[in-house]
Amino acid sequence: MPEARALTVDPAPLAPPAAPTVAVVGLGYVGLPTALALHDAGTPVIGIDVSEQRLVAIRAADVDLPAGDADRLGGALDGGGLRLSSIPAAVAAADAVIVCVPTPVDAQRRPDPRALRAACANVVANARPGQTIVLTSTTYVGSTRELLLDPLAERELHAGEDVFVAFAPERILPGDPTVEQRTVPRVVGGATPRCAERAAELLQPTAGLIHRVSSLEAAELTKLYENTFRAVNLAFANEMASVSTHLGLDPVEIVDAAATKPYGFLAHYPGPGVGGHCIPVDPHYLLDPLHGDGLRAPIAEAAMIAIAERPGQVAARALALLRERAVSWDEATALVVGMAYKPGVADARESPGLEIAELLREAGVDVACHDPRVAQVRFADGTVLRSVPRPTAGMFDVVVVTALHGGERAWLADCDNVLDATYRLPFGNRTLV
């Protein structure tokens, strides 16, 4: 591939414009909405992503955004207020840099911060005096100091004097249009008070409120606390769903009733598992370093084990239903409804539905999938499974429902072999996990 094509989508020069500019590094589910929010506030933005494929998709508006955001994206690109680049060194053209790269886990559920390390190393290498640098990626406590603050100091760029470094964890909720980014408070921790002030000024137009904490590490731990809290409660919600089902009760009815208490209870609902890029991932950035220090966090550890085991429980229940119907597993057909990790998104990362489908395949079942937002998925062995466009009742021996985007209920109501792992179908022909 020619060098120029590999480096940039837009041929426009990337010299610093007259107005203050922000470079957003990483244009995924956090970076792209962040870039749009900054653009809406009148800030020129350079959106940087090392994936040419991602940049082409953004240019074509072929990305997972609400309809309103898709319109805003087109306007930002057409008007020139948002420029796209795959040149990492383009951060040098900006007055501020916001790092939004993903922080996944590997197959053993251990943190994999390679993308974060590479992005921060590039930011450090291209940093210049006067820049404000904000890390937003969810990561282990001490990351901002290790990956930004100390390497910048080695370049004689000292935080609070030459550059301004902060950590401000993202709080974007994909798939829920009722929670807008600009209405959610933002936590900011700076390397110095002046660093926190500069970061707060940068982010204020994109957030409902800025809540400052005392340090980088306090802000980092805040995000890990938030998502570990959710992981613990979701694991408990699944446990209580099993208890409710055992007692012949509707788990969602129980949660809704408990939620009428105006204090001391926060509703969490059961499901087929916990997917996506946050809840099943982020707590490991808390736990893994603690294990290295010889410190245990037994409640969080137990929750993450329960979350990891949940798709297997759903798959086992589906196999038991086939046995009850006297259908041999190696002759059975199954449809998994929902390859997205949650309703309202087209993202299959850490998807419970995908893992359930894989477990059924391993048992010998002929598996198909249906998801109006996810056209196809790829299994670990490379097999590609494409979404069945129009399934009907009677096509499969068992139908496992793991995520509902809204249009699936009509034909599911005619099925007599539904395993509802969402606990949300209203009709009486479903089986619960």
From TrEMBL:
Keywords attached to this entry: NAD, Oxidoreductase
GO molecular function, one term: oxidoreductase activity, acting on the CH-CH group of donors, NAD or NADP as acceptor
Pfam short name (any one): UDPG_MGDP_dh_C
InterPro entries in the cross-refs: 6-PGluconate_DH-like_C_sf, NAD(P)-bd_dom_sf, UDP-Glc/GDP-Man, UDP-Glc/GDP-Man_DH_C, UDP-Glc/GDP-Man_DH_C_sf, UDP-Glc/GDP-Man_DH_dimer, UDP-Glc/GDP-Man_DH_N, UDP_ManNAc/GlcNAc_DH
Occurrences of domain UDP-glucose/GDP-mannose dehydrogenase C-terminal (ranges): 335-421
KW Oxidoreductase (keyword) present: yes
NCBIfam families in UniProt: NDP-sugDHase
Protein's UniProt name: Nucleotide sugar dehydrogenase
Organism: Conexibacter woesei (strain DSM 14684 / CCUG 47730 / CIP 108061 / JCM 11494 / NBRC 100937 / ID131577)
